[in-house]
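Quick log. Single chain, no ligands specified.
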Amino acid sequence: MVGMSVNAVEEPPDLLASHSAIQIRGLKKRYGEIQAVRGIDLDVPSGELFGFLGPNGAGKSTTIKILCTLVQPTGGSAKVAGFDVVTERTNVRRHIGLVFQEPTLDEYLTAEQNLRFHAEIYGMPRSAIPGRLDAVLDIVGLTDRRNDRVSTFSGGMKRRLEIGRGLLHSPRVLFLDEPTIGLDPQSRVTLWKYVDQLRVQERITVFLTTHYMDEAERCDRIAIIDQGEIVVLGTPAGLKAGVGQDRVRIRTADDAGAAATIVARLAAKAIVTKDGVDVFTDDGEGFVPRLFELGLSVQSVTVTKPTLDDVFLAYTGNRIDDAPAHSLPPGPWSRRRG
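-> predicted structure:
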């Protein structure tokens, strides 16, 4: 949590009693003429693994910046761990952990030295540091590497150490912003094993952003934000059921022309993507013969049931990696995507 010095703070409200770790009401943020966040409302119960998804430039990172007190809103309000993000910034910072998309470890220090430095920044009592340090190293499986320089760690090990660092001061809410980006599949699986473990051991709320739909499937609930507004909110199963249609994907010699023909002659919704033309219908198998009747030069056809990727496409008009980012002025995370 670079740049977040923290002094003596109040104890958090009883989150289990209030059942809310994050409360957002009418939250807005404007950058000049650009309205990055347009009055969103959101409640995240204590203990939930919550997914926050959206195209690049949709307002995800701006919202997280506000929740982590790195940026002040221009309207509305937000509370994290029971504290107001504007008027009680120090208390918010004391009770959150944050794992950035980009690495922020000091690779010339050992794992233990990185953690001790973090403990000093947060003003943890000296007597409490050794026991807490042992606990988080055990949680993330790095006890036997505590005295090794971080420069010798794999990408997955560095991510686990960053999560351990974010847990060191016993936060009530942990923000994971694209935590597995750049990791190989095995490291991603290992990292999520530790995240699942820490949720049980630490009774913590996890607020996740990700571009991986298999990670979003893990969430208790998901919100999709687009153009600064939450366009849909629900459980993964509920959102997929809400889409309610099969996806027929075709590849042709002219995908744009095929999509136009399908819309004109079959009155169906057809979206051109980098993978072909996607058509949504209640009966995918029954729709395929109708496609061939159009005389299209079809190269391949696949039929799949609704997925979270389909939900994302249905509500934003883009695949999660396809939407262009808006141009925002530099901020605390100016190197990061919106």
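The chain has two domains: 15-235, 245-305.
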